[in-house]
Specification:
The complex is a heterodimer of chains A (about 350) and B (about 575). With about 350 residues, chain A is mainly α. Chain A is built from 12 helices and 2 strands. Chain B contains 22 helices and 20 strands.
Chain lengths: ~350, ~575
């Protein structure tokens, strides 16, 4: 089941490719720091709601259904093996023998892990289904940019804040930052370090793929359709010549495969030569450094809103983690039982 | 801008080749000239084109002697990309030149490479699409367009780069007649209006000669003729290299001056200069339809995957053994879909296809393939081995033929396609026409009773086309039933007895070829390209010329009789 771009005009479709990339990264980070099943469930439900609006419901469901069993197994592992010593014991999975204890903490973890995986996978799906691959490739390709302090700050500040929130626990650890005596100074140096790191990250992000690679990537995406059409034609040609393309005998099947592979390989080779002639003839090596692009990618209001939301969510997640409050559901259930 | 193309004693040998592909070329093409290059396959036309935009020596490896200049630039010292801003290239196969995901990206690709600012790119794209009548196709995926639209897209993409020189290497070869007319007009109009140089390579002279100023004829890597259209035509034919259009040869045979190029002009000139007498009414020999038993039957076959794309609607027909059927129609009208049903590559949604008594929906393709030999358009898709003999053995093995028969069958098949000396040749060393014949031969080793051939002559020169049609005709004479998809109306008219015309998935015509030739409305509706001889025959039908005349020799006799030119006069 290939994940292919679907045309559409939904909220997700209108977003910038980079925003969708960041939704994916954001979902991954949140999934790593938040272990609460309820919160993860809400995130998943929200992503699923966006997906339902944007792409074909059946296709989305089919894709997710395949994964349910796999992720349930992962959850089961959590239930089975995540048993802290002070965990609240519920029952034994295999009674009489008293094997495999199931605990509240284990169950909560298990459900959380289930949604965690699904949120990450779903966010990838949403990105790939609603973004033309060419756009995805082009947005991460290096290009001439106007220098703008405002834009730079817009990236550095939130990034710095997130890094700061993430690294805050370090300040409390004994042994770290202890050479600096004053607490205020400790915080200040930590903040400064985060800003420098954020600046470096920004520079790295802005660098992007080299132009040749980016354009090559977009050309590659365009070729996929043609190559699959060609493969179909070749398979048909061989069938028509009398090859049983799906024989029962394994050895015959390998033989038949070679009969298909040789023309497919040659045709692909020929195609790649055609492409290099075609792009050279259209000035690909004219001056690759000064190449311009028809598509311009600018963030719209919605993009900023989504980015702000991701920022807030990640920040909230980090704060919860810092306050050792990473699974309120677990605490709630436990307090009920006490 | 003045940009003459100057070749000074240029010889080029491809790496690995023993003989030069082009030798001793001295040539100047002035700014604004419209030049046609013609000549048989392998005569060096493409090599010459590749020199103009620097693909030789920068991309194709080999030994280049002499100098090629475009304006003040020596092509040796400029990158292909640099020349691309001056020289726009369009090649034969449009699909292989489309490299992006949408028409608008395709057209913008060149200007982007040239570093044109974004606002200007948008303007150029808009203009280029308007000129090529592709406005409205912006978001279409190039590989879903028809051949003519694809080529128009490639031309738009070249146009958007604003080159001073257009070089087009057989831009019409892969198009159906409708596409050909569209693209040809477009190209010449574009060059003339903007005063740009146009170099175009083409085999089919009928359509293009009236539009160009200068003709070069190439043979064996050399320019054997160079001059104005009138000069080159006046110098006569060159055997197996240059055959003038039928109309020109007819005019010559009755000593008509002024070199008419179109049937209309010839008709007018004849009436002006002679007082043509009516000839005794006669009817050209009627083609006899096959009277054998029905071997292919389609009953109300409907196939529909996407609306109107590759669909069939309620098609019913019967083919009898021994028939030669030409399957005609525009690109995308359902011809390939129809023949794919015969061998079970596609199954009808409703209706029934029976071949030799077998229902194709229930019989696997490899069983049906014992009765039907299938030849595809692109021989590369069919050939699986590196060596001719291996290739042919492969098919025999797949069908479980007795190995003692192999040698005999291979020899016979190669003889039929006139390639008996190539049994041990490497497939890669063969040209396209030869590959096509090997693909045909490997089908023939199985001695199929029915032969289905999908456009076997795409991009081949007239000599090769003639050869292939003769081979197939001979097979038909010996009893093989032939169903052939083709755009070559003139050849189809000469050899096939029966015509099927597909239009948007419907069977628009099924009957004798003669009847189709007489049905002007049908011909126009399906943009079938009526051969010049047939057009002329229709014009002269008032003088007793049979309206179904398609052979040059017949027309030749009639016209001489009409104007009273005797043999040896």
């Amino acid at each position: 089941m290939a994940i292919e771009y679907q045309k559409g005009k939904s909220f997700l479709h209108q977003l910038d490719a980079r925003t969708k990339l960041l939704i994916f990264i954001g979902a991954t980070v949140i999934a790593m720091i938040v272990v609460d099943p309820l919160l993860m469930g809400i995130l998943f439900a929200f992503l699923y709601y966006l997906g339902r609006k944007a792409i074909d419901k059946d296709q989305l469901n089919n894709n997710l259904k395949v994964l349910v069993v796999i992720f349930l197994t992962f959850s089961l592992f959590q239930v089975l093996f995540f048993t802290p010593d002070d965990a609240y014991f519920l029952f034994y999975l295999i009674p009489f023998k008293n094997w495999v204890p199931v605990t509240i903490q284990g169950l909560v973890r298990g459900v959380a892990v289930f949604f965690r995986f699904f949120s990450v996978v779903l966010s990838v799906h949403l990105m790939l289904y609603t973004t033309p691959p060419v756009e995805l490739a082009l947005t991460i390709t290096e290009r001439e940019q106007k220098k703008s302090l405002r834009n730079d700050l817009l990236i550095i500040l939130p990034l710095g804040m997130l890094l700061f929130a993430a690294s805050l626990p370090l300040a409390y650890k004994p042994g770290f930052l202890q050479s600096i005596q004053q607490p205020a100074l400790q915080f200040f140096s930590l903040a400064a370090g985060c800003l420098v790191a954020a600046f470096a990250l920004m520079k790295l992000m802005k660098k992007g793929l080299p132009t040749e690679m980016g354009v090559a990537l977009t050309l590659g995406f365009a070729t996929v359709g043609i190559l699959s059409k060609q493969t179909q034609q070749i398979t048909n040609a061989q069938k028509a010549r009398g090859y049983d393309v799906q024989p029962k005998n394994i050895i015959r099947r390998v033989q038949v495969l070679t009969a298909l592979l040789i023309p497919i390989f040659l045709a692909t080779l020929e195609r790649s030569q055609d492409i290099s002639i075609a792009i050279l003839s259209r000035g690909f090596d004219y001056n690759i450094g000064a190449r311009t692009y028809r598509r311009s990618f600018t963030f719209q209001k919605d993009d900023f809103l989504v980015l702000a939301a991701i920022f807030m969510l990640v920040l909230a997640g980090l704060t919860m983690k810092n306050l050792n409050w990473s699974s309120p559901t677990e605490s709630f259930v436990l307090s009920l039982l006490k | 801008m003045k940009l003459d193309i100057v070749f000074q004693n240029v010889t080029f040998t491809y790496a690995g080749a023993k003989t030069p592909a082009m030798r001793g070329i001295d040539l100047t093409i002035k700014t604004g000239e419209i030049v046609l290059i013609t000549g048989p396959a392998g005569s060096g036309k493409t090599t010459l084109c590749s020199c103009i935009n620097g693909l030789i020596p920068h991309y194709h490896e080999g030994d280049l002697q002499g100098e090629v200049h475009v304006g003040n630039y020596n092509t040796r010292n400029v990158r292909v990309g640099g020349l691309a801003s001056l020289v726009g290239m369009v090649f034969q196969d449009p699909e292989s030149q489309l490299v992006t995901n949408s028409v608008v990206d395709e057209v913008a690709f060149g200007p982007e490479n040239l570093g044109i600012p974004r606002e200007e790119i948008d303007e150029r794209v808009k203009k280029a699409l308007a000129v090529t009548r592709m406005t409205g196709y912006e978001e279409r995926e190039p590989h879903t367009l028809s051949g003519g639209e694809q080529q128009a897209c490639v031309i738009a993409a070249t146009y958007a780069m604003h080159p001073e020189i257009y070089v087009m290497d057989e831009p019409l070869a892969n198009l159906d007649p409708a596409g050909r007319a569209q693209v040809l007009k477009l190209v010449v109009k574009m060059a003339k209006e903007r005063g740009k140089t146009l170099v175009v390579v083409e085999h089919a002279l009928e359509e293009i000669l009236p539009l160009v100023e200068r003709v070069l004829v190439m043979s064996n890597g050399e320019i054997v003729r160079d001059g104005s259209v009138a000069q080159v035509l006046a110098a006569g034919d060159i055997k197996r290299v240059f055959k003038r259009p039928d109309i020109v040869r007819l005019a010559e045979s009755i000593h008509l001056e002024g070199q008419p190029l179109k049937p209309e002009t010839l008709f007018e000139e004849v009436q002006k200069h002679f007082k043509p007498k009516a000839i005794q009414a006669r009817y050209a020999a009627q083609h006899s339809n096959g009277h054998g038993s029905p071997i292919i039957q389609l009953e109300h076959v409907t196939y529909c995957y996407q609306t109107d794309v590759d669909a069939l609607y309620d098609v019913s027909l019967t083919v009898r053994s021994g028939e030669f059927v030409a399957l005609l129609g525009r690109n995308g009208s359902g011809k390939t879909t129809l023949v794919s049903h015969l061998i079970g590559l596609l199954h009808p949604i409703s209706g029934k296809v029976t071949v030799m008594g077998k229902d194709t929906s229930e019989t696997p393709t490899h069983i049906l393939a014992r009765d039907i030999g299938f030849c595809f358009q692109n021989p590369n898709h069919q050939l699986v081995s590196f060596n001719v003999r291996e290739e042919m053995t492969f098919g025999l093995k797949a069908h479980g033929i007795d190995p003692t028969e192999f040698d005999e069958r291979i020899r016979t098949a190669l003889e039929i396609v006139n390639m008996q000396d190539y049994a041990d040749a490497e497939i890669f060393d063969l040209g396209k026409g030869q590959k096509q014949r090997i693909a045909l031969a490997s089908v023939l080793t199985l001695k199929p009773g029915i032969l289905v051939i999908d456009e076997p002559t795409t991009g081949q020169d007239p000599e090769m086309t003639e050869d292939i049609f003769r081979i197939i005709n001979d097979l038909n004479q010996q009893g093989t039933t032939v169903i052939m998809i083709t755009h070559e109306m003139d050849y189809a008219a000469r050899f096939a007895q029966r015509a099927l015309v597909m239009n948007h998935g419907h069977l628009a015509f099924d009957g004798p070829m003669d009847q189709l030739l007489g049905n002007q409305q049908l011909i126009e509706e399906n943009s079938l390209d009526l051969p010049d001889i047939a057009k002329l025959a229709r014009m002269f039908s008032g003088y007793g010329v049979p309206a179904n005349t398609v052979r040059f020799e017949d027309m030749h006799t009639y016209i001489r009789e009409m104007v009273g030119v005797k043999n040896g006069d």
